[in-house]
Structure formats: C-alpha cells, structure tokens
Amino acid sequence: xxxENDERTPRELETRSTEERKKTxxxxxxxxxxxxxxxxxYRWIRTAAFGQADNTNVSAKFREGWEPVKAKDxxxxxxxxxxxxxxPDNVEVGGLLLCRTATENMQMxxxxxxxxxxxxxxxxxxxxxxxxxxxxxLLRPDKKTRVDFGRS
Length: 152
Hints:
Strand content: 5-15%
Distance between the termini: 65 Å
Number of helices: 2
Order of helices and strands: EEEHEEEH
C-alpha cells in the first residue's frame, strides 16, 4: 500500500553509480602490455643485464621461435623505446625486447614441459617403489593422504 506523500525514487530511475566502489590509484607497471593480436603470444626477452649485452639469451629465444615486435606494428609503444637500442626498429625498454610467437608454439612448449614434468614424477615413483625394504613398508603408494584428528 503506497502512501500519498511517498518520496521514494521509482526503481526504474535508480542507478548503481552511487553504489560503485571507489576507484583506487595504482602505480603504472614498469613494462606496458602490448595490444594483443589473435594468434600471437607476447613476451619480454632480456637483451642486457647490468649494462652488458646478453646475446646468448637473445639468440636462444630467437631459436625457440620468438621474433621481435616491430615498433610500427604497435604505435602505442613507440614513445617507450630506448634511444641506444641494438634493435632500433623494435620495442625495447630497459634491456628488455618485446617479442611474439604463434600461440600454437606456446601450446606445444607447454605440452613439452608438462610431459617432462610427468616423466620426472614417474621416475621418482618408480625409484620409490623399487626400494621396498621390509623394515620400512610402503603404506600409501596411491599418493592419497588423509588427516585424522583425535585418534591415537
């Protein structure tokens, strides 16, 4: 039952702007995020450390399939390039070079390292099961644990 002197705002006219959380300030990141393009993954590659060029790291990453990003492809980052860069046409900030590779390469890399990790786990398990000493029986080879409270 509505009162005649009801001064409430109709629900349709209410906005959530007064209920929004207050925005907080955060310092900018040291390395800006590039505008992503479909089919590519991005990464910053170290080109120098402590003022010394790191050619070994750069060439290893290039052999892995990373390629430098051209500054003209990312105009939002052109102001950030180092003036004394060894890669003048690319995006380099503080000894780090922006590179990209196909997303498929990153998926294959992840699968490779997942397989390597699983091989290591299997190796540890096989070595553990091989060392069956009757003085130290293997009680839980199924890798499941349980916690009981109050039992002695």
